[in-house]
């Protein structure tokens, strides 16, 4: 007879956790901003294709940095100008994407840090606001 995890005695809980970890059931570590940049963002931001601000170009990034970390990240996440939503990478989480934006902003003179929970809250609130604006447009 097969036993479900729910009916396992409490002393088996560590074994259940080990099985979950070994089978990939645990949350994967988030990619760094640099990793995401190298995997996804560099394709456009290294060359400036479609007028993407080049990595490290302080002049091009200055007005974007002035928009604020939560605003720029939310706009870019949803897709802005020629940039596709999620930078064209559907595997990215919002937090990984936000780390990449912060990484690129730092390379161009911004003082942005990787987003903490408070900043992620601001980014999500801005995303909601941007979505409402986009729906309201004819």
Low-confidence stretches at least 5 residues in length (pLDDT < 50)? Answer: 1-26
E-strand count: 0
The number of distinct helices, counting runs of at least 4 residues, comes to 6
The quaternary organization reads as single chain
- Quickly give the structural class: mainly alpha
Entry summary:
The protein is an all-alpha fold. It has helices at residues 13-22, 33-45, 58-67, 69-78, 94-107, 117-136. The chain contains 6 helices and no strands.
Task: Please characterize this protein's 3D structure.
There is one protein chain. The chain has about 140 residues and is an all-alpha fold. It contains 6 helices and no strands. The protein is globular. The N terminus is likely disordered.
Write the layout of secondary structure elements.
Blueprint lengths: L12 H10 L10 H13 L12 H10 L1 H10 L15 H14 L9 H20 L2
